């Protein structure tokens, strides 16, 4: 069993922001792999559902603790499901890579990301996979701050460049190892 976690902030006011691409990707996977609707589980501090990818059971989760407290939910999830850290993938926005770029890396992440830092602190480890979804699309010498940028809504053009379908093959490769 594996645990796929999308990072984001709960609530409709955040649903289309750059910071919520982790939630968006988990929603895409749920649809792509015909998962049942997400259910909120107060004990798990998350919305969860299950699916199967290449004969592997996958728990899809969207923590409802807000980004900066993601570690609390991730800690509860891995203990409840008894999943090893190396069997989780956390999907999140990444300002260190360009919009539309996707990287899966173990133990490596953005220079600064409060959600990832919260998870590393809660797990006292960096030994987990990260699905880094690039959102950097700021131009010009006077960029707005990252904190402000990630909470802005994605434009339709930006959403189109987040072609999640392209990322599926990279995820399925993990099941061949």
From TrEMBL:
Where does this protein reside within or beyond the cell? Cytoplasm
Q: Name the residues that bind tRNA.
A: 14, 66, 68, 114
| UniProt-listed Enzyme Commission number(s) | 3.1.1.29
Question: Which UniProt keywords are listed?
Answer: Cytoplasm, Hydrolase, RNA-binding, tRNA-binding
- Where is the major localization of this protein? cytoplasm
MF terms from GO for this chain are: peptidyl-tRNA hydrolase activity; tRNA binding
GO cellular component terms, semicolon-separated: cytoplasm
PROSITE patterns referenced in this protein's UniProt entry, alphabetically:
PEPT_TRNA_HYDROL_1 (PS01195)
Catalytic site: 19
Spell out the residues of the site Discriminates between blocked and unblocked aminoacyl-tRNA: 9
Which residues are marked as site: Stabilizes the basic form of H active site to accept a proton?
Answer: 93
What GO biological process terms does the UniProt entry carry, in alphabetical order?
A: protein quality control for misfolded or incompletely synthesized proteins; rescue of stalled ribosome
Reaction(s) the record says it catalyses: an N-acyl-L-alpha-aminoacyl-tRNA + H2O = an N-acyl-L-amino acid + a tRNA + H(+)
Q: Pfam families from the xrefs?
A: Pept_tRNA_hydro
Coiled coil: which residue ranges? none
The record's section on InterPro entries has: Pept_tRNA_hydro (IPR001328), Pept_tRNA_hydro_CS (IPR018171), Pept_tRNA_hydro_sf (IPR036416)
Q: NCBIfam families under this entry?
A: pth
- What quaternary structure, including any partners, is listed in this protein's UniProt entry? Monomer.
Q: What does this protein do?
A: Catalyzes the release of premature peptidyl moieties from peptidyl-tRNA molecules trapped in stalled 50S ribosomal subunits, and thus maintains levels of free tRNAs and 50S ribosomes.
What is the similarity comment for this entry?
A: Belongs to the PTH family.
Q: What is this protein called?
A: Peptidyl-tRNA hydrolase
Q: Which organism is it from?
A: Candidatus Roizmanbacteria bacterium RIFCSPHIGHO2_02_FULL_43_11
Source lineage: Bacteria, Candidatus Roizmaniibacteriota
Q: Which gene encodes it?
A: pth
């Amino acid at each position: 069993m594996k645990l796929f976690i999308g990072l984001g902030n709960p609530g409709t006011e955040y649903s289309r922001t750059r910071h919520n691409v982790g939630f968006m990707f988990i929603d895409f996977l749920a649809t792509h792999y015909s998962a049942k609707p997400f259910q909120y589980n107060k004990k798990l501090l998350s919305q969860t559902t299950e699916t199967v990818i290449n004969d592997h059971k996958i728990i899809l989760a969207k923590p409802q603790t807000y980004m900066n407290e993601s570690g609390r939910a991730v800690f509860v999830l891995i203990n409840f499901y008894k999943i090893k850290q190396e069997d989780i993938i956390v999907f999140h926005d990444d300002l260190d890579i360009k919009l539309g770029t996707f990287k899966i890396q173990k133990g490596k992440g953005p220079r600064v990301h409060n959600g990832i830092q919260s998870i590393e602190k809660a797990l006292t480890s960096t030994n987990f996979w990260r699905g880094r979804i690039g959102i950097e699309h700021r131009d010009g010498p006077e960029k707005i701050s990252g904190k402000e940028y990630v909470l802005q809504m994605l434009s339709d053009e930006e959403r189109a460049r987040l072609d999640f379908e392209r990322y599926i093959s990279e995820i399925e490769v993990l099941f061949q190892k």
